[in-house]
């Protein structure tokens, strides 16, 4: 575990030297202490052994709230500086917005958004000249008491990114919901429907990134 300059934490998996995959979590309206993402942890456990040439770095924000988006972006930028190499950002939910905000960094080569929150007012110009891939479940949507992001919102984000000069693509996961896994009260990771399809889409981008 590494304490970042902002006070956030970084957890590393793998010692690959070809590049780093920085994984950033979602958030919520209330200001609450950051946690490790169940979806990203589940994903890293599966893909890291298949890509030994890459290192994976999960970020635990100081505060995980979209009302403190600028703090989360600062935490992600600190993580990019810490890994110190060419970087692919993988952002889940609010992490999609965080990843887009960091895309202007020279080290960042692209962003993979998993059910990403890309509000219509978010500036997507940092993606100009970069690559963004969005993976979203068809059944994802916000419900009372249940977090979610409409795939229509992320599709509009992809269209805006393309208009801003990004190379952009969109993958719909039929039957997918908001993410890949949930954390049970006892700590276990519970796999969500169609998680394997999300992995396939992410692995395609990891292969591209690893090839340089």
Structural features, described:
Helix content is about 30%, strand content about 25%. It is an alpha/beta fold and about 210 residues long. The chain has one domain (about 1-210): 3-Layer(aba) Sandwich (Rossmann fold). It has an eight-stranded mixed β-sheet with strand order 1-2-4-3-5-6-7-8, sandwiched between helices. Strands 9-10 form a two-stranded antiparallel ribbon. It starts with a strand and ends with a helix. The model has no long low-confidence stretch (mean pLDDT about 95).
Keywords summarizing the entry:
alpha/beta, Rossmann fold, two-stranded antiparallel ribbon, 5 helices
How helix-rich are the residues, as a percent range? 25-40%
Outline: globular
| Ends distance | 27 Å
Tell me the major beta sheet: 8 strands, mixed
Number of domains: 1
Poorly predicted runs of 5 or more residues:
none
Summarize model confidence as the mean pLDDT. Answer: 96
> CATH superfamily, please?
Alpha/Beta hydrolase fold, catalytic domain
Which range does the strand content fall in? Answer: 25-35%
Number of E-type strands: 10
- Return the structural class: alpha/beta
Strand order of the largest sheet: 1-2-4-3-5-6-7-8
Cα gyration radius (Å): 15 Å
| String of helices and strands | EEEHEHEHEEHEEEH
Question: Would you state the CATH class?
Answer: Alpha Beta
Count of helical segments? Answer: 5
